[in-house]
Automatic annotation (TrEMBL):
Sections of the chain in a coiled coil: none
Similarity remark: Belongs to the universal stress protein A family.
Span of domain UspA: 4-74, 217-271
PANTHER family: STRESS RESPONSE PROTEIN NHAX, UNIVERSAL STRESS PROTEIN UP12
Protein name as it appears in the record: Universal stress protein
Superkingdom of this protein's organism: Bacteria
One Pfam family of this chain: Usp
Amino acid sequence: MKPNLVVLTDFSLAAERARAYAAALAAPLQAEVHLVHVYYPQAVPLDFGTTLPVPYTRYVQETRQSLEILAAEMPQPATAEVLETTWQDAVEQALKRYQPLALLAGLTATDSLLDEWMSNRALPLAHSTGYPLLLIPEHLPTAALHPPRRIALAIKDASFHLEPQTRAIAPLLDSLGTEVIPVCVLPYEERFGGWRGRQAAQQCGLSGAIPRCGLHKVIRELPASGILQGVDEVEADVVALLDQGHGWLHKIFYGSVTEHILRHTQVPVLLLAAHLESSAD
């Protein structure tokens, strides 16, 4: 069975970058790329208290044609489809149909949580579906459109395990020979730690080579900036984050390491659904 990649697209600049990255990723894997656009007709309230969805047939036809043109331009085999249903149902349909190695989506730079929610609807999907979600920054340079050679896996000094579906990406990383380096940010007083996290990384099943991985430590008080520093120090071209699925309420009241990295990253972000021994973010 030919491997599959699913790209969620809304024709934004970020989505176009995700499509370009998917093309570069698909080539060495001989994978098929599936472009998916979600259209859900909006309901219109009526005077007698009910609502009716208003299908926009012309929009759907034009969108499907545009998507088919993009698929035809892909250097690798590609399909295009517009799914007329809710966002969650559309994603579930695509995952069931294609069983992809990963989901890809664009990552739009935002200034607030509301902007993030409006522009980056794919963010919760890693946790809600269990599938690995690869987010491609909208301003990723053309020179960076290549399969990952080295991934910085951000870990805590705590045990964790990946959700079963998350390990679907392992064949992709193994085929590409991608190196995975755990990066642990520690305050000075805990500088001798990190080994519980590395042991969990070695046993997590993210790739065939990860049982032999080392550990890169960053001694810094702030985890988010420390992770980005670690990405630079190990010269990683992707940063992988363990997604615990805290949700928007957690971000509003406590802030989020993940949110900071999504806003400031210069490389693609791989979100991996995981369960950690400690749930603090």
